[in-house]
Fold this sequence. Notes:
By secondary structure, this protein is an all-alpha fold. It has helices at residues 12-15, 22-31, 37-55, 61-79, 99-113, 131-143, 146-157, 162-171, 178-195, 198-205, 219-225. 59% of the residues lie in helices and 0% in strands. Mean pLDDT is 88; it is low at 207-221.
Amino acid sequence: MKLPNFPECNHSITQSLAHYSDQALLSAFQRNPEAGKYFTALFCRYSALVFSLISHTAKSPVQGEYLFALTWRHLLHELGGLELPPAETAKGEKSSFTLQNWIINVTALCINQVLLPDVEAIHYSLAEASPPLWCYVERALDRLDPTQRLMVVMAKTFHWSETRIAAYLQAEGDRVSPTDVKSRLQVAYHQLEASLPDDIRAIYLEATDAMLADAVEDPELDELLSPIAL
């Protein structure tokens, strides 16, 4: 597997954080959970290392890319509670526990323990959604109410029509027409956009307030949501 190019690493936002230490980025990430740039900066710093470790064990490129994304999703969850010891002990000795070592250990854990689905069942594509964007879109989806999330996934991951979505919801007891589905999707797309961190939209989407105004027919949103794993 060839190391991909990650354009976010050249974005001015992540470049402005490149000189900060691991400890500083981790602390900023933990103090500012509404921001996505600190995690993205850590991703840019260690993506090559994680990708290299996974590429040597993956049975196929598709499974390797999916495991790469899953590993970063796990790292995102675990970083919130991680405590790094001081770089030096009271005796002036360097600590053997570093963020890099921790990331290597977590990656090894994911390689050894994550059960990957067959290639045909994987919807994720690294070319369509870099792991930080994928992670924050998943978090934004989780903030939608269950019916909104279901409709968005049906529409954008599985490409169901409004008529088919309405028929499914009617079978579940929700009296809704295809027109109602279309309007509900518009609301869900706007809420989805609003739930993404501003800096994530700036880094990946160059978002404006009207970005999702025509989201039902927006091919960029199709590319963004189609790799979301269920």
